[in-house]
Amino acid sequence: MKPWILGLTGGIGSGKSAAAAHFAALGVHVVDADQAARWVVEPGRPALARLAEHFGADVLLPGGELDRSALRAHIFEQPAQRQWLEALLHPLIRQEIDRELALAESPYAILVSPLLVESGQYQRVQRVLVVDVPEEMQLLRTVARDSASEEQVRAIMQIQARREERLKHADDVLMNDRDLAWLQQEVERLHRFYLTLRGDPS
Questions:
Q1: 102 assigned binding-site residue
Q2: What's this protein's family per the entry (predicted)?
Q3: Residue 198 sits in the same domain as residue 132
Q4: 13 belongs to an annotated ligand binding site
Q5: 101 and 114, same structural domain?
Q6: Do 143 and 150 meet the contact criterion of CB atoms below 8 Å apart?
Q7: Which range of residues forms the domain containing residue 48?
Q8: Annotation-wise, does 25 bind a ligand?
Q9: Which in 15, 27, 91, 171 has the greatest CB count within 10 A?
Q10: Sign of CA pseudo-dihedral 28, 15, 193, 116
Q11: Is the predicted pLDDT of residue 176 greater than 80, yes or no?
């Protein structure tokens, strides 16, 4: 049996990373789309050379790694460049995610992605779990965690799918408005249910 794939998402500060960590502690194979996105632009990977070729050497740090803030500046000034960047990176990120998911040996695997809905990645999973939290709590948690300003956090929240949009795609919703012990208990409850579901025989 091939493992079936659960998409796990939630807005910034919702607690999706804590939920994913607890699923992993229960033995579930977890793949993080953000990690895959970082991995495809590491030194020595073809994407990084293409970026330097296209945007110029100023997108590289002295050590040869990607200078994310320099890249952001390029994209910010020229929105058309964002499309070029996405056309380059999205297929590579997709391949990386597929490669990682193929290694799963647990009955189901999890793809964690903050942009599961916006990027269309939800079409590649069998079920979607949204870790949800009231927006005010999302804001307070993120400001406290990242020492970010309220404006910065609101700007990130604007880019991410609206809460209603995310919830529309959800098969399951984990309301994370209590403490970590509650979150872990909910993850364990969902895990027991998920173990009863079957993937594609193959």
A1: no
A2: Belongs to the CoaE family.
A3: yes
A4: yes
A5: no
A6: yes
A7: 35-105
A8: no
A9: 15
A10: negative
A11: yes
